[in-house]
Amino acid sequence: MFGLFQRLLPRDHVLTPWLLTAALVALAFFIRLPLQPFLGGGLAYSAFYPAVILSAYAFGRAPAIAAALVSGCLAFWCFVEPVYAWKTTPQILAAFGFFTTTCAVAIVVITGLTGALKDVSHELGRARAVADGHAGLFRELNERMSHHMRLVAGVLALQAKGEPEPQVADGLRRAMERTLLISRVHRELGGRVEGPVDFDAFAVALARAICIARNAPPERVIVEASGLELGVEEATSLGVALAECLSALFDTGVKEPLKIRFDVQGRCTEVAITETGQGVDGALVSVTSGYLLRAMTEQLGAAVALRADAGGSALVLSMPRPGTAQTGVQPSTLH
After folding, report:
1. What SS3 state is found at 267?
2. Mean pLDDT (whole number) for 170-176
3. Whole-number Å distance between alpha carbons of 54 and 67
4. Nearest Cα to Cα of residue 184 among 147, 155, 231
5. Is residue 100 packed enough to be buried (19+ CB in 10 Å), middle (13-18) or exposed (0-12)?
6. How far apart are CA 57 and CA 17, in angstroms?
7. DSSP state of 33
8. What is the per-residue pLDDT across 37-67, written as a single tens digit (0 to 9) for each?
9. Model-level pTM?
10. How far apart (Å, rounded) are the C-alpha atoms in residues 48 and 74?
11. Which residue spans within the chain are E strands per DSSP?
């Protein structure tokens, strides 16, 4: 019966609670009706208590009050002896009054509790939304702090490498190590899951963002899919280096499309940026001397080189992958 009502009317229809309440009262009536020859006038109202209680819990105060009134009238007229006749004896009126009072108390208590639970659930949802928002901001802050401190570590490593004074160079190296340690702590505090990153989608989104920022069409940078997956820190560092390379190439005024290719060979990841225009070698050389790119490659333990490519000259960034042998990463290429 309830399934039939749900198919005929949607759950949020205004008539649904009233029809279901009527169905509960009718069910109680037809359960009590066959028992009349055995019970007589006894327990005339008992079969209707579950209908009133369920209506108050599921549908609220108004349908429950209607269920109590209809149930009391049905029981009084059909089951209290003499049936189908008007009765005004004190015992009959007392039983009717006891039924109505009990139903009133049950309706007030049940609807009050359900209303309080709804309020608590609503406030809990709001508090959870605020907590999730704060947690998201905290994760983003820690992630940005981690990224910036890795850049600082790269700059310190580059300064240490070119420092002639041994004590100063040693101090810079120690500062780099501590900066990297703090960067890892920030990432752990952020609670970010260190799962693999689909670097195909990452590189495409990064290239599109750089093109938009430079007022260039996204088609200027072509990224070919490979299925390459990197760790979060590795993808972040490689993405910063890639962004610096692309930005520096745009600054040199290159006009031809750029093609990005990734190769994973053994324990080394290679990033190759190919430009097919004329006189591009000078632009690629100027990019390799960029300070931020040098700092990132120093921090990553990577190497930057120029190489002849099938499509022209290529800027190649080679970065070691310490965990490749243990994790079983298969070679993949992005052309």
Report:
1. coil
2. 71
3. 10
4. 147
5. middle
6. 11
7. G
8. 888 878 889 999 999 999 999 999 999 999 9
9. 0.45
10. 9
11. 197-198, 221-223, 229-230, 258-265, 268-275, 303-309, 312-320, 333-334
